Amino acid sequence: MPDKSAATLYFPDEPVQPRLVSPFRGPKTVKSLESLGEIYDTRAAYMVCDYQHSIGNYICDADGNLYLDVYAQIASIPLGYNNPALIEIAKSPEMIDAIVNRPALGNFPSTEWEQILREGLMAAAPPGLDKIWTALSGSDANECAYKAAFIYHRLQQRGKGVDFSDAEKTSTMLNSAPGSPDLAILSFEKAFHGRLFGSLSTTRSNPIHKLDIPAFKWPKAPFPALKYPIEDHEEYNRKEEDACLAALAKIIDEWNGTIAAVVVEPIQSEGGDNHATPYFFQQVREITKQKGVLLIVDEVQTGVAATGTFWAHEQWQLPSPPDMVTFSKKFQAAGFFYELDDLRPQQPFRQFNTWCGDPSKALIARGIVKEVKDKDLVAQTARVGDYLYNALAELQTKYPAKMSNLRGKGRGTFIAWDAPDVDARNQFLLDMKAVGVNIGGCGAHSVRLRPTLVFEEKHADLLVKAIEAVFSK
């Protein structure tokens, strides 16, 4: 362990508590939202932020309020606001080059690109996966993984070295088979995998994400609805998981079409922070192996040390690695890792766009990997998560009508619980801002925690104190 905490090392001037100088959505914020709203849709905006004055685990709004931030830009700030190590990277000649001369990486990779990847993203690759494709966002990462799965599947059918037929070339220009085959990606109920067309067709968490958008008619399987704490309901949870596994196998066998891949989140985040046990995921891996279906693990939200291991799926102890693992958010960069050579298309330009990722973001990712290792932030997140979970468990015992189904034990700071209903949840989120905490929700009526990796026991104490202040009103 470092002699000093990571937060103190990075942010010696970080506040010791929230600072409120005006109500939530004060006059400057309201004015800014009204003005910005003339040219940009601000209806989903919680606040207008002053990032220059945000620091560490605290986010500053336009009115000068400093909130303890346990939402962290929807789980995407890894090392706190204005982290000095990342600022130095931003000032570097490499960063200037990457931004000013942004390359079209598929056609014109830089002389530094291999080193950036090997020292950064690849240095943190999931066990067993030794190749990478970089993308532009979490949704794009999943889209690219889906494309890789489809191309792989058809390659296995067609055979290596076999050219496309004239019928394939002609029919695909008409969006018809055989060139545009009837293949599918199977996802799970309440899943969230993004908002682009392929990823949206695998998203099942909220109708508002999908309404009015044409979708591929791809299958979904049930995801276990477990009872919490998981370890107190082993018999019930095993039956629930076995039923879902049987349904998954049946859907793969009976789907009217061909399922090329199954995509799953280690913890269903937008859908309500829904968990399953390692047993469930081990069996999903076995089923996909037996049936010749690829397994894509979507670690866009869970990846990069948030769950007490660098990758959440490491806790499953799988018999063999996933075929692809997608990432984004806390890595700031995006893409997917893989191992099978055939997941790289035989022909160029099939997995391709102008940018094929962003070297400026990969430079930041390299810095994040270094800081996570140097400051031992995986172990810290595991330690702080246990500390916070135990404190919240005491609160749940004290306020069972306001907090139930606490979950995330042993999963770092990836913790959530249920409010009585959606109105109570939404009021709780507002009440927390009134006491200086920026916090988020998910699912039908859940509250989720997504703090930075430099969130520590002292921050956990502030959070628990704020929650109790709201509950005791």
Automatic annotation (TrEMBL):
Its cofactor is pyridoxal 5'-phosphate. It catalyses: 4-aminobutanoate + 2-oxoglutarate = succinate semialdehyde + L-glutamate. It holds the Pfam family Aminotran_3. Its EC number is 2.6.1.19. It is an enzyme of class 2 (transferase). Keywords: Aminotransferase, Pyridoxal phosphate, Transferase. The keyword Repeat does not apply. One of its GO terms (molecular function) is transaminase activity. It comes from the Eukaryota. InterPro entries: 4NH2But_aminotransferase_euk, Aminotrans_3, Aminotrans_3_PPA_site, PyrdxlP-dep_Trfase, PyrdxlP-dep_Trfase_major, PyrdxlP-dep_Trfase_small. Coiled coil: none annotated. Belongs to the class-III pyridoxal-phosphate-dependent aminotransferase family. PANTHER family: 4-AMINOBUTYRATE AMINOTRANSFERASE, MITOCHONDRIAL, AMINOTRANSFERASE. This is 4-aminobutyrate aminotransferase. It comes from Myxozyma melibiosi.
